[in-house]
Each structure stands twice: as structure tokens, then as C-alpha cells.
Amino acid sequence: MARPLCWRFLLIHLTLILSTSLLFATESHEEQEQDTPITRFQSYLRIKTAHPEPDYSSAVSFLKSLAHSIGIQSQTLEFSPGKPVLLLTWPGSNPSLPSLLFNSHLDSVPAEPSKWVHPPFSAVRTSDGKIFARGAQDDKCIAMQYLEAIRNLKQKKFVPTRTIHISYVPDEEIGGVDGAAKFAASKEFRDLNVGFVLDEGQASPGDEFRVFYADRIPWHMKIKAKGQPGHGSRMYDNSAMENLMKSCELVSRFRESHFDVVKAGIAANSEVISINPVYVKAGVPSPTGFVMNVQPSEAEAGFDLRLTPTTDPDELKRRIAEEWAPATRNMSYEIKETGPIRDNMGRPLMTATNDSNPWWLVFKQAITSAGEKLAKPEILSSTTDARYMRQTGVPVLGFSPMKNTPILLHDHNEHLQDTVYMSGIKVYESVISSLSSFTEASD
Ligand SMILES: [Zn+2]
Fold first, then answer.
1. How many Cβ atoms are within 10 Å of 298's Cβ, its own excluded?
2. d(CA 205, CA 263)
3. Most distant CA pair in the chain, distance
4. What separation in Å is there between the alpha carbon of 214 and the centre of ligand 1?
5. In whole angstroms, how far apart are CA 20 and each of 104, 128, 209, 275?
6. Is the dihedral of CA 254, 258, 261, 266 positive or negative?
7. What's the CA-to-centroid distance between 357 and ligand 1, angstroms?
8. Tens of pLDDT along 300-314?
9. CA of 136 to the centre of ligand 1 (A)
């Protein structure tokens, strides 16, 4: 008796499993076929744009065909082979006014699929509305929201006064040297006569959107010490290790003095210079590790330094040369600067967020009109392509409309809530229409 019952039970179960999976299959199939802002976002997220081999050509053709479908002009520029810059343009009724530029990058950082709950380029939307993908926050969301906002504005028969451009640039995640740096320095960029730029920002775990008016500037610093090698038992002055350790102590004190300001709540992390040791290289190798009775003749340490926009680079270099790596202690140093420190007029790379900047006032008002709030403007701890645009002297704000969202850029399981994505489109509708209708700024 037990056996037939058991079979029947199994059969019912199998039928249930089959029908459930069929149901899910149908649902996801339908979702695929519908053409909605969410499915278009998912399609863009599925393009494999992660380094080291970002598929720029698929990303560009996808965005281009989307732009054409809503009547937006496009041109593809190439400042480095295989590294396209896609430029979209919605001409304004008064093209002599300075234009607006909305920038985003095409590339993404790599992901480790084994650490993700859904494959990083699957763009799976869970039943609670989370869309999982590498790039969902950084920064494919804004790339698509710009276009969706324009689509909606066009449907509402909105006519911009200022010309609106959208740029999609390569290589931001590897420093932007062959991307935004070349684009911002080009004749093509100058010809756009850009008055104001919006670039990417970051998610906000709170209720207010974050906005960034400057980036910190990274320097990679190596300090090296040389000295007399000697027996491990001997005490003598000026060994390579002793000199390097003295420097590390001084660097450590400098680091603490800045970190204390942050710990005391006087400044944000991004408002002070940070310096962190990233490697130490020394010792005489042996088959089992290091020779323990030899003091080496060379020692080296590497540091990640982040300058605030108002740091005096000459003053810092003097400190490095005189205190951290002085020739008098047989030391030398190398600094790799990874981008500009001042704009073309010699000013710090900062965009004013006060009454002196009319663009800021219009932007802020547009956020309020969309029923949203902005947090106190911040300096970004890391860097974006915004620095290359600021270098030209144009005001640039970093902004990605993601509130009540965990900060997951470059993290495992990067995702964005569908409702957050959709409300971001509305925010850009307000921002784009306000900025493009604003005619008072003379430059
Ligand atoms: Zn980014």
C-alpha cells in the first residue's frame, strides 16, 4: 500500500515542479519580449563591458540604435583605436547658448561570478524588484536614465532651448587616459561649447541624493632606501631598513594627524589627505623565506595617497623630498600622478555649490521640483572622469539619483531596485528640462 501512495505523491510533486518552472519560464519570457524601461536597462546590463576586454562595440551599437529610435543624433569619435566615444545630441532651439553634457562611462570593473547570487551579466530581476548586474549602479543606470528621460520629454513635446549632449566614454575604470582625458582635451569637445556637465555620482543609503563637487586626486608614491648591507648581529647607522622604517614612522604620524580630524567628526574622509601603505619590499630571499642574519642593502615601500582639491602639490612634494625620502638618508622616491591637479587656468578642480554658480541653483531647484532632496555637497573619496572635464574650466557635478540604496559599486552582488531606477528617470526629466530651459547664464 505504501508504494502506490508514494508514487502518486511523487507524481503530484513532479507536476507541481514542472508547472511552476513553466510559469516562471513564461514570466521571464514575457518580460524579455516587452519593451519597457526596465527591460531596456536589463538589455544594456547584459552587454559584457567588464575589463580587461570590455565589449565597447556592442555597447555603442545598442545605445546608438536606442538613440535613433527616439530621434536623437549620434556620432562616434575615436581618440584611441578600439576605444569609441559615443556622442548623442538633441539640438536646442537656441544652439548659440552653451550646451549641457551628460556623461557616463561604457566600461565596468570585473566581477567574480562565484561570489554572486546571480551571474554578474544576467541582469536578473528578483521578485522583490532588485536588478543584479555589474554596472547596475556604476554607471549603466545613468547611461540609460539620460536616454529614457529624453524619450519621455520628447513624448511630452518638450523643446529644449539649450542643446543637450550625452557622452559615453571608454576606460573610466582604468584611469580614463584613453577616454575622457582625450575627449575633454579635443577640438570636438571645445566645439560643443559646453556650459555645464553632469557626471556619475554614488548611491545614497539615506533619503537624500548625494552630489559631488570635486574628486580627490590619487598619487602613487614609492619610497626607496639604500644602505650598507651587514651581518644581522651588527648595530650600525643608516641601514636601508632603518631609514625606511624612520620614514614609515613619519608617514604614519602624518596619516594619524589627518585621520584624527575625521575621527573627531571635524571633516569627512574625503576632505582630508589620505595616505595608506600598500606594500613593503625588503629582505634577502632564501629558499624557505628570508635570510635572517643579513641586513639588506635595499628596502622599498609603496603608498596610496589621495590629495584633496585644495592640497598644495608643491608643499606635499617638499615634505616627501625633505622628510619622507631625504637624500641625506640615502633615500629616493617616485610619484605617479594619475590626473590633473589644477584646471587650465591654474585653479583647484572644484565646482562651486553656492549662489556664485547659477547652474548649481537651477540643478538644486530641479531636484526640489521633482519632490526630492539633496544632501550636503561632498568631495568624492575616489576619482571619476569628472576631473578631466573640470580641467577645461567647465562646472561639473557628480550625481547618480539612487537613494535608500546600499553603496555597491565594485562590490559583489551589485544591484539596483527597479523603483529607484524608475524614479531616477523622473529626476532627470526635471533636471534636463530645467537646465536646458535656463537661459540667464552668460557662460
Ligand atoms: Zn563609475
1. 17
2. 21
3. 94
4. 15
5. 40, 18, 40, 55
6. positive
7. 25
8. 999 999 999 999 999
9. 10
pTM of the model: 0.87
Concerning whether 171 is annotated as a catalytic residue, the answer is no
Range with the lowest mean pLDDT among 24-38, 204-218, 222-236? Answer: 24-38
Residue 317 reports pLDDT greater than 80: yes
Give me the domains of the chain, ranges plus CATH numbers: 36-211+353-437 (3.40.630.10), 217-337 (3.30.70.360)
What is the CA(49)–ligand 1 centre distance, in A?
Answer: 12
> What is the rounded average pLDDT for all residues in the chain?
93
Place of cell 505523491: 9
Query: For helices 418-437 and 358-369, what crossing angle results, to 10°?
Result: 130
The CA distance from 181 to 79, in Å, is: 10
Residue among 107, 173, 372, 385 flagged as catalytic: 107
β-bridge partners, 104: 168
Cβ-based neighbours of 323, under 8 Å, separated by 6 or more: 247, 250
Stated as kind and residue range, the H or E segment containing 430 is helix 418-437
Tens-place pLDDT, residues 6-55: 455 444 454 444 444 444 444 455 555 689 999 999 999 999 999 999 99
CB-based contact 280:188 (threshold 8 Å): no
Confidence of residue 440 (pLDDT cuts 50, 70, 90): confident
Angle in degrees, CA 108, 111, 114, rounded to 5: 160
CA of 339 to the centre of ligand 1 (A): 16
- CA–centroid distance, 400 to ligand 1, in Å, is 10
Distance (Å) from CA 210 to ligand 1 centroid = 15
Distance CA 250, CA 217 (A): 22
172 in active site: yes
Take residue 307 and report the three cell numbers written for it: 590629495
Radius of gyration of the chain (CA): 27
DSSP string, 113-159: GGG-SS-TTT-EE-TTSEEE-TTTTTTHHHHHHHHHHHHHHHHTT--
Rounded to the nearest angstrom, the distance between the alpha carbon of 384 and the centre of ligand 1 is 7
Catalytic residue among 138, 172, 215, 414: 172
Find out whether 224 and 325 touch, Cβ atoms under 8 Å: yes
Q: Helix (H, G, I), strand (E, B), or coil: what is residue 307?
A: strand
Category of 296 on φ-ψ map: left (φ > 0), alpha (ψ -120 to 50) or beta: beta
In angstroms, the CA 211 to CA 373 distance is 11
